[in-house]
Write a structure and sequence with these properties.
Elements: E1 3-7, H1 10-15, E2 22-27, H2 38-43, H3 46-50, H4 69-86, E3 87-97, H5 102-111, E4 115-123, E5 138-145, E6 161-162, H6 178-184, E7 193-196, H7 203-210, E8 214-219, H8 222-236, H9 241-247, H10 249-252
Helix pairs in contact: 4-5, 6-7, 7-8
């Protein structure tokens, strides 16, 4: 099977992975952000923080999004340290974040042993304007390498991405665009293994399979793990994501 999906806490699962098996770590951890104050960031639900009051969907919340910045930095450092141990030489780590947590994320990446190699903007055209101020239309992708890049690979990837969150068939509050993830997973060599400790609805895994990579995912939420399993199974069996959307996760798993 080209993918494995673990249900459970990422720290526990990663500790059980062998050394040196991962070609790329590509992940979108809970940002533990949102809200104007520390109290709002650590008490509000993910849905309350990341969706507007008039959002036309009822997507489920996800756990693990109520840490303060120092505990978030320590937690992310521990996860990226285990990922580093499980990674091969020349492996690349790619971590999504927002403007509030970008400093914590770059600190965690470096404290875990990765060599910070840059920050890419992900520009979201469909984001809302802000009255009296600048539009918050960007998130960020922090990346680093284990020791050094593999210069023998003739691959040239973009330095920024422009894409809005999916509207049709959206199944997760913070779901990433499949077209962006399909480009990012190419940082792993063909046939290589991509690790995502925060699989969510499985978009990184779907992108990895679609681009001829292996995938190892971890997801704490049973609700989202079920959706991810269904999407990965649909992809492996040649079904489109429209097939998954129309059938529903219970019918395609």
């Amino acid at each position: 099977m080209p993918y494995t999906l673990h249900r459970g806490d990422a720290r526990t699962v990663l500790a059980g992975l062998p050394d040196g098996i991962i070609d790329a770590v590509i992940t979108d951890p809970p940002y533990n952000s949102g809200g104007r104050t520390s109290a709002e960031r650590t008490t509000k639900t993910a849905r309350a923080k990341y969706t507007s009051g008039d959002a036309g969907h009822t997507l489920a919340n996800f756990p693990g999004d109520n840490r303060d910045q120092r505990s978030y930095t320590r937690w992310l450092t521990e996860l990226l340290t285990e990922s580093y141990r499980a990674a091969k030489k020349h492996a690349v780590a790619v971590v999504f974040t927002d403007w509030r947590q970008e400093p914590c994320t770059t600190d965690a990446l470096q404290m875990a042993g990765w060599t910070w190699s840059g920050t890419l903007p992900w520009i979201k055209p469909a984001s809302r304007p802000r009255k009296g101020g600048f539009k918050q239309s960007s998130e960020f992708i922090v990346w680093g390498v284990k020791e050094s890049l593999d210069r023998s690979r003739a691959i040239y990837l973009p330095g920024h991405f422009i894409a809005s969150q999916p509207r049709k068939g959206r199944v997760h509050i913070t779901q990433k665009p499949i077209e962006v993830m399909r480009e990012i997973v190419q940082i792993a060599p063909p046939g290589g293994t991509v690790l995502d400790p925060f699989t969510g609805s499985g978009t990184t895994g779907v992108a990895a399979l679609r681009e001829g990579r292996q995938f190892i995912g971890v997801e704490l939420s049973d609700h989202y793990a079920t959706i991810a399993e269904a999407r990965l199974n649909a992809e492996e069996n040649g079904l489109t994501q429209d097939d998954f959307i129309l059938a529903g996760p219970g019918d395609t798993a």
